[in-house]
Every structure is written in C-alpha cells, then in structure tokens.
Amino acid sequence: MTEIISVITTGNGRDIIENIGKKLVEMRLAACAQVVGPIKSIYWWKGKMEEAEEWYCILKSRKDLYKKIEETIIELHPYEVPEIIAAGIDDALPEYVQWVEDETGLPPQT
Fold first, then answer.
1. CA distances to 15, 24, 61 from 65, in Å
2. Whole-model pTM above 0.90?
3. CATH number at residue 50
4. Total domain count for the chain?
C-alpha cells in the first residue's frame, strides 16, 4: 500500500492559499486541498514576536510526491520561509488510500 501524507502550509490570504491548493490539485500532486481559516498565528520572526491572520491549506497526497509539493509551494508562496510540513498517516480507510493514489497519478514504482 502507498504511504499517504497530509501536508500543511499557511499563508496570509485566502486567495493565496486557495491558489496554492488549486494548483497542487490541478497538477495531481494532491488528491485534495482543504482551506481553513482565518486562524490567528503568534510566532517569532527575525527576533520579534508577531501576530497575523492566516489561512491553512491541508493537502492529502503520497509521500513520494512531497519534494514536488514542497518545490511548488515555495514557487507560489509569497513568504520568505513558508510553513511546509508533512505528517505520515499511520492508518486510513483502504478505499481512501486508493482514492488518493488514483487522484495523484500512477502509483509509485517499487
């Protein structure tokens, strides 16, 4: 079975995050993109505590596509250092895993 992942990125505008999500789904690098927000982020940046309204993009994909997803987000994202994190999914409904595989192109070669 293919290892699927959930990839998260955040951004300071709904349009920006929706554009990233749509592009990744169009490219078949993600089976789906869920846009959630707004959220309030509190973080350190360049020695100063910051607060910002941001939006989440949660992507479902395959682990072998992570680097291409990361490259695409960096290309489209306005942040100097965007949040791009991936978490493996230990258990999932087999039909859901199959759907992710089907919607992200051919299964990985072994």
1. 24, 11, 7
2. yes
3. 3.30.70.120
4. 1
